[in-house]
Specification:
With about 180 residues, this protein is α+β, with helices and mostly antiparallel strands. The chain has 6 helices and 9 strands. Strand 8 and strand 9 form a beta hairpin.
């Protein structure tokens, strides 16, 4: 699947009959109230957790402009995983990594003031190449701060020369300063 604009391809409370692999771009994962809760990038899988269960999912997934996702029918994917143990280990590790990282990030955001939490957010999602097409509201939903406070902090980071922020695209300029904010902010 290719996305020319932000489009939903997994609907909240639906049954998942496929596994999705992000070949290119980013996918926004939103909760039941349509709030951003995570971003997935190239090389990430969606739906692995529900591979061996028949229950509804409780999130929606949106491909952003320029994203390409490969869809595997669940039974075909299960057969491939069961016949290739090396691939199974790699897929399991990737799936575990996403959940572990999300939990670590959420705990880290709660331990920091807004500037440290935002620096941590920017550094993490920059590594995954997921800082394009983000709205201030979505960043605030993940961090747990108001959109106004996130906007002010993004402006402060821009004025300080830490980032460039244009049309929803964030480019990190001074990574070492952001690491310092993450550690001490």
């Amino acid at each position: 699947m290719k996305f020319d604009q932000e489009e939903m391809f997994i609907k909240n409370e639906s049954f998942l009959f496929s596994v999705f692999y992000i070949y290119k771009g980013q996918v926004k994962i939103k909760d039941q109230k349509n709030r951003l809760c995570d971003l997935y990038g190239e090389g990430d899988f969606i739906g692995l957790r529900l591979l061996f269960k028949e229950e509804p999912i409780f999130f929606s997934a949106y491909g952003v402009k320029g994203t390409e996702v490969i869809q595997f029918e669940k039974n075909v994917f299960k057969k491939f995983v069961s016949t290739n143990s090396t691939f199974l280990v790699d897929v399991y590790n990737k799936s575990s990594e996403n959940i572990t990282t999300l939990a670590r990030n959420l705990l880290s955001y709660k331990m920091h003031k807004i500037n440290g939490a935002l620096a941590d957010f920017l550094l993490h999602y920059n590594e995954k190449d997921c800082l394009n097409f983000l709205k201030q509201k979505e960043i605030s939903e993940v961090l747990g701060y108001s959109r106004e406070n996130v906007c002010k902090c993004l402006n402060d980071f821009t004025l300080a020369g830490y980032i460039e922020y244009n049309d929803g695209c964030i480019k990190l300029i001074n990574i070492s300063a952001l690491h310092n904010l993450k550690q001490f902010g």
